[in-house]
Amino acid sequence: MGIVYDGFDPMIERRVAIKTIAKDTMDPDEAVELLGRFKREAQAAGRLSHPGIVSIYDYGEELGLAFIAMEYIKGKELRKFFESDQRFDLAQTVRIMCDVLDALDHAHRNGVVHRDIKPANIMITDEGRVKVADFGVARIESSMMTQVGTRIGTPAYMSPEQHQGLPVDGRSDVFSAGVMAYQFLTGERPFTGGGYTIIQQILKQDPIPPSEINFSIPRTLDLVVGKALAKRAEDRFDTAGAFAEALRKAATGEQALDLVLDAKALPADIGNLAPTPAEAPRKTTDTSATASDISLQAELEFWREIKDSSELSDFDAFLQAFPASRFAALARRRMTRLQAEAQPFQPETTVVHQPSKIRIAPNTESGNRLRREAEERANAEADQLRKQQQERKRLEAEAKANKEAEERARQEAAERARAEAEAAARREAEEKARLAEQERARKEAEAQARRQADEQKRREAEEKARRELEERRRREAEAQAKREADERAQQEAEAKARRETEEKKQREEQERQRLDTEQRARQEAEAKAKREAEQRERRETEEHARRDAEERARREAEAKAKREAEQRAAQEAEAKTKREAEERASTEARTRKEADERARKEAEDNARRIAEEARARKHEQARAKREAGERKQRDEAERERPQKEATPKPSGTTAERPEAPSPIAAPATERSDSARNDHDATVAMDLATGLTSPVGGLTRPVRASVTEPVAETVAEPATTPRVQPAVAPERPAAREPLPAPASRKIPLAAMIGAALAVAIGGGVWLASAPDTTTSTSPQTTTQAPGARETEAQPDTEQQLTKQRQAEEAQRQQAELDKQKQADLEQQKQAEAANQARAETERKKTVEQAKQRQTDAEKKKQELERQRLAEAEKKKQELEKQRQAELEKKRQDQERQRQAELERQRQAELERQRQAEAERQRAEAERQRQAEAERQRQAEAERQRQEKQRQSELQKQKQQEAEKQADAERQKREQQAQVSGPERYKLARALMAEGKTREGIRALTQAARAGNAQAALELGDYYINNRDVIEATRWYNEAARLGGPEVKAIIERRREALKRG
Question: S-S: 138 plus which of 44, 483, 755, 959, CB 3.0-4.6 Å?
Fold first, then answer.
């Protein structure tokens, strides 16, 4: 509505947008309506102050032009984003829609309903901010559904109540915003098709859920958009703010939509918003609009949608849907024009050619080539020039022929118009003469009838005057008597009324005094009650504050005590755990220390005992060996003596001395004993340390290492008998194995004991080792056979002794290995038992700590439950007190209301008594004035009849004057030339004289005569009067008749119309 200009405010130096509307170019009735809408837009937007609404700076009317100065918005309409198929992501959609809904919510709270929310009225600035514009149809309450051409919204975005002509409120804007939200989410509008189809869909059908078109959006948005697009206003969001909040929650995935989407307000089939093919579209509730009203609205909205279309199919569909429409003729003309415009148009184009200057090169090969190319180019340009000249001549001839045809057509039209004007003038003159004759005859008849009627009226008036005089005299007598009676009655009534008035005044004074006393008492009681209530409320407030402070202090103390108890419990648990761990560590350390000490002492005692036993055994064995050697030597000496004595000595030879025993056997025996002693020392050391020799895996048993003696004896004869030794060596006594240590770790005491045992064993071995330096080489002297046999017996005994000793050593070693294995098994069992006890103790400690923590938590929960119970109890007590006070206050208010009603009832009774007395006085006065009124009515009737007659005469004269003026105007028009420019000048003159209707008629004739300026001004006139159809028709006509300048002007007007 109107034209928008880009302006600048020099006072405050800011850029503004100026929206204007010209009052002088509009019909007076239309100007009143359009100016009212224009002013309402300024008032509606001007009373709003919101970042999302275009601000209004000023409104004024000057020199027939109304204007609105508003905020200049640098950006684009949301419609252009949609038309360019630009898609918005979910976050952008929710932000833009929430900004729009916040602006609408602000407008609704201030009593403004936009009623035309659509993408064309939403501006997106370059910074991304949202602005709601065009409040031109906000709050238009009257005649908005019956005036043809009045646009109150865009059909695809209008709510069902707008289409049905029902009253609207902010929920209508919620529906329009829901259509926009659907278009944001899916990229298409929920209701599509022609105007009639859109209306039927809005009234009867639900759209497809957005998530079934755009699979990337959550289904919760289906619920929100579906509620905003509900058919019934009460099923939608109550406010735009609630719609925005629901959008935000649905977009962020919150499930608390029940805050805004209550079950009773959701559509019945919200789970599947699209109707299934098997079921018919659901119908909304009955409305007050009849079928004819809806059909008329559908026809009007269908025409509004297609009237600016350039598609023949749109107008063909309109004619098929509404063949008897008032716009059918316009649709057919539009189809004819579109068919004509579809023919190819060849513009008259004149090509002006300037021959080019060519410089010819010297007569060389390149110069010849250039010359040939230049000649070919010149010939081609000459041919092109000849063709253009021929085409220009042809076009000029066609233009001349067309011009002559148009001139002939104009002349023929002028001749026909002149002939028709002359015939019309003749017919009008004849009709005028006939009418004049009829008028003269009528006037004569009326004069005759008037004279007869006057005479009759005069006679009747005289008779009537006589009768009236008699009647008046009679009535005067009666009236005199009645007046006297009335005066007496009035005097009596007045006296009675005075008495009653005085009595009433006395009663009223007494009542007023009583009421004043009661009022003062009530006021004093109310003031006292108010003071007491205030004091009580103050005391309660103080008591409540004190209780709150005590409760807060108690809670803080409980919390502090709880924290301290928890800290103490945690500290005690930690300290106890630490003490127990330290006690276990100290106990284990002490146990290990004691075990190490005992092991060290036992190892030292065992090593000492073993060393002493080995030393004693060594001495005993050495003594036994010396004795055995001495017995052996004695026995051998005894055996050899008889032989020596019986054997004769050869002559000449010296008897040899008896050989001493071989020194090899004794050392061998001594070495065997020494090895056994070494073995015993090693076993003692192993038993003392609890170790075994490391070979291969973890351990291996220490085997007895008996050194085999190397006997260098002379081979015995086969017949030499075995001789058992007289004295067998003593078998060492078996020793009990020492207990294995408690741990696999080698304690320091065990290592010390092992070192002592090794040292002692080494000393023993050194003491018992044979002295090899004293060994002598075997005797080379040849001995007798008997001597050799005697020497072989001790060797055999030594072999048997060594064998028995080796067997005994193996047996002892096996027993020692078995004992060591048992000791190792016992050690492992002891270690496993210790580990099990430690694990049990640890688990017990952990369980005890958990139990203490659980007890502390239970105690904490119990304290919290007690605190909550006490708080709830106090809250209930406070609520009971508050309810009691409210009940008491309500009872006091009820008593006051009853007292006020009683007072009003008494006052009403008093007013009724006064009204009754007044009615009686008025009745008496009315009866007195009735007679005078009848007389006045009779006189007024006579005067009215006279005025009516005069008015009829005046009307006849006025009609005659109008007919004469029409005849004069027609005569002037007939006398004017037929050409378009002359008619255009005539139209301008009529418009200057203020004769708008005659001027428009003359402009129409000039435009039909081919004047482009007249067609342009007709388009301006109709666009200012909001008749878009006629304006479009005359703009197209002006574009057809005019040149490029006119077409440029029309394009600017269309752009301004779109912006406005």
Answer: 44
